[in-house]
Structure formats: C-alpha cells, structure tokens
Design goal:
Layout (H helix, E strand, L loop, with lengths): L1 H11 L11 H12 L30 E2 L11 E2 L7 E6 L14 E3 L2 E5 L5 E5 L4 E5 L4 H4 L5 E6 L2 E6 L3 E6 L5 E6 L9 E3 L2 E5 L4 E6 L5 E6 L13 E4 L2 E5 L4 E6 L5 E6 L18 E2 L3 E6 L3 E6 L5 E5 L8 E3 L2 E5 L4 E6 L5 E6 L6 H4 L4 E6 L3 E6 L3 E6 L5 E6 L9 E3 L2 E6 L2 E5 L1
Parallel strand pairs: 1-2
Antiparallel strand pairs: 3-34, 4-5, 5-6, 6-7, 8-9, 9-10, 10-11, 12-13, 13-14, 14-15, 16-17, 17-18, 18-19, 20-21, 21-22, 22-23, 24-25, 25-26, 26-27, 28-29, 29-30, 30-31, 32-33, 33-34
C-alpha cells in the first residue's frame, strides 16, 4: 500500500514544504559550499545574455575516430557513424504513453530489431520490418492503470527492466518470458548501468541500488540526501575504475565503490536551498572521457570534475541540461536558449558559440528548448520541444535543414547501425 501511495505521489503530487536549515547536517553541507570557492551558489535559474562568438571558426575533425557503441558506461558517444539523408524508412508503432511531459526513454536497438514499451507497460519486440515479434505485459490490472514507464538494458539474451512503479525484472529476449521479478520500495528514476554480474539503478528516494543480474537479489544500497519535491528529470550514472558515479535530485555527485557500496568521494554542487526547488532543477547526464566528469545544469553551470577525487577542474557559465558530447579535446553542448557551445575540455574555455535557433522568431524561440542531440560523421542532429529536428554542420555550425518529426513530444536522436531513430509519442521513426 505504501509503495502504491508513493507511486501516485510521483505522478500527481509535488510537495512544496519548506525545510529546516538549522539542522546540523544541512549546516555542514552549507559550510562545504562556503569553503569551496570554486562553487557558485545559485538559488534560481540565471537569465544570462548570450551572443554568438567566433561563429566563423571552422573545425577540422578529420582525424577524430568514429564511435559505434550501443551502450557506454561513460555516456561518451563521440562521433557516430551516420551519413543518411533523413529519408524515413521505418515506423515502429505503439500505443501512446500517458502522463508524461518528456520522452526521455531509450529503446533497445538490436541487429534484428527494436524493443520498446507501450502505455500499459507492455514490452514489444519488433523485427527490422516493424512487425511485432512478441508483446508481453508483466503487470497486474492495478499496476497497468499507473501507466508504467520502463528503462532497459541488455545482458546477453536477457532484457533487464526497472520501472516507475517500483518493479524490476529480467526477461528473455527470445521469448519475452520473465526470468525473475522483484519489487523495490520506491519507483526507479534513472537509466540502468551494468558491470560484470551487477546492475545499478537509482530510485526516487535518491537511493543507488546494486542488484545481481542472475536473480535480482540486492547486493547493497546507498541513500543520499533526499528532497521534499519530486525531481522532473532522470538521474544519471557512469561506471569507471570500479566506481559508480551518479547524481541525485539536489545536485550531489557521488562516487561509490562497486563491490562494497561505500562512498569514495562526494561533491555537493548546490546550496541546501535547492531542497525545495528540485522539481525545477535540471541537470544533464554525466559524461566522462576516463579522466574527468562533465555535466551542466539549468542554473548556468557547466562542470568538469576530476574522476579520481571529485575535485573541481573548472566551471563555466553555460545554461544547459542536455547531455554534452565529447569529440577529441572539445565538448559540444547546447544551451536552453538554442546556442551551440564548443568548449575546450581541458581548460573550460569557450571556443565558439553558434545560434541554432536563428530561424525562429523571438516570440517562438522563447517557448521552445532543446531536447537532445547527437553527432554523425559530419552533421549535428538536434531535436527540440516543438517536435522539429535541426541539422547543422559540425565544422562550421551552420544550419543545413530543419525537419518536422512530430507536432508533439519527441526524444533525443539515437544512431544505431548507420540509421537514425527518434521516438515520438506513438511510434519510433527510423531514418536511413
């Protein structure tokens, strides 16, 4: 009953209670922020004036290696192999998802097809001709009414699932039948990462949980500071050097030893005032190059952290909550206002700023924001909240084409096997 009540709270209720900052634990956290002069205290979303910079600068990326990774524990996609002309060649249909304000769900892409889910939590496996191979639902009638949202990861012939109604389970990819099924105390709110025989996922109580792939038994869990409001974003994880590094709803970045579940280091990036603002606080996915961790937020802060110690390498002023992409010694990111930033990843210096919303009228652009982007061989592909896809050259940042994908919500773009995919509510569009 408690689990059901909490789940309903997740979808329908935002608590605006205040928090007593006189308690010692929050004073200690505040002191850490005061002592670290590199951290800027921000209590509300900054409104900064951004202009293009060095927009005539052209890049030479001919020596950069093309990556083709389905799942990367560093979230470091780099350049992906895609040279298509955006001709639609497939449409994987599913019943429209309900009670959502963003499509931040990633399909599973297989050589033989695609796996996704529908509004009742049914898992659907399609072949490459968009035909349903199997469709299985592993929820009770009452759970289906909650409209489960599913996160996936593949381990050999098994599909591992963690969802928004506090269930996690393993499914055979060939048949769709359940291998094992477990319940958590609270719903999950992150992607799933795996390492050897373990998976890692975060729930709405800011608790990182480690489970065994074989049977779903819990290895350990670690709860970080909680907030009194429900986060409006998914939490992010990366796995490196036998550590799981993740963020929570109040901006803490924590590194945890994979075997023991003990904290290796922890860095608070926000004041304790963020406790009551987490619904509006948005942070990007964490990305790493193996030495540093990069991420940004909608508080006008872009961070580079040392991977081993969690200390701050640099902070720059970029207002973005979408996943950055690393290309060589450059960071590509796009601000909430539609500006493409190129940043030197070692020093944090801004090299170029290009306006990707140039073709929008001022009144229109105030009401749209970037959803996510990916970079192909020569072009950048950006989806926006108005359902459009902007294609721009990565060497000069110039807009090549604007494609309408949907009149409603769309996901970030995905590249797999030289094809580009975008999820819109009701179908997954495949481009050549």
């Amino acid at each position: 009953m408690n689990k059901l009540i909490f789940t309903l709270v997740v979808f329908f209720f935002i608590n605006n209670c205040s928090f007593n900052e006189n308690s010692r634990i929050w004073k200690d956290k505040e002191n850490k922020l005061e002592n670290n002069k590199k951290i800027t205290k921000v209590f509300s979303e900054n409104k900064s004036s951004v202009k293009e910079f060095n927009q005539d600068l052209k890049l030479d990326l001919s020596s950069i290696k093309i990556l083709n990774k389905k799942n990367d524990n560093q979230n470091n996609l780099g350049l992906q192999s895609y040279k298509g002309d955006l001709r639609k060649i497939g449409n994987f249909k599913f019943s429209k998802l309900e009670k959502i304000n963003q499509l931040d769900f990633e399909p599973i892409f297989l050589k033989s097809g695609v796996i996704f889910f529908d509004k009742k939590g049914s898992i659907i496996k399609y072949d490459n001709n968009q035909k349903v191979v199997w469709k299985k639902n592993h929820y009770s009638k009452s759970e289906r009414k909650l409209k489960p949202k599913l996160n996936f990861i593949v381990d050999k012939q098994n599909l591992l699932v963690a969802d928004s109604v506090a269930k996690y389970y393993s499914v055979n990819i060939i048949t769709g039948e359940v291998n094992w099924l477990k319940n958590n105390e609270y719903p999950f709110n992150s992607n799933i990462k795996k390492h050897k025989d373990k998976i890692f996922v975060i729930d709405y109580k800011n608790t990182l949980r480690c489970y065994k792939i074989k049977d779903g038994s819990e290895c350990w869990n670690l709860q970080t500071e909680d907030s009194f409001t429900i986060s409006n974003i998914k939490y992010s994880l990366i796995i490196l050097n036998d550590n799981v590094i993740f963020n929570n709803s109040i901006g803490d970045i924590t590194a945890v030893d994979i075997e023991t579940g003990l904290i290796t280091w922890q860095l608070p990036t926000q004041s304790s005032a963020i406790i009551n603002e987490t619904y509006n606080f948005k942070i990007s996915k964490l990305v790493s190059d193996g030495n540093s961790i990069y991420f940004s937020n909608n508080k006008n802060q872009f961070y580079s952290l040392d991977l081993k110690t969690g200390t701050i390498n640099w902070i720059n002023e970029v207002n973005s909550n979408i996943k950055p992409i690393l290309v060589g010694n450059l960071i590509f990111t796009i601000s909430r206002e539609g500006y493409l930033y190129l940043i030197d990843k070692n020093k944090g210096n801004i090299i170029r700023i290009t306006d990707l919303f140039l073709n929008y009228k001022d009144k229109k652009r105030k009401n749209i924001y970037p959803v996510g982007f990916i970079i192909g061989d020569k072009n950048l592909y950006l989806t926006n909240s108005d359902g459009k896809l902007i294609i721009a050259g990565i060497e000069d940042g110039k807009i090549i084409k604007i494609e309408k994908v949907s009149s409603g919500l769309v996901s970030e773009p995905f590249i797999f096997n030289d094809n580009l995919y975008i999820v819109r509510n009701g179908s997954i569009i495949k481009y050549n």
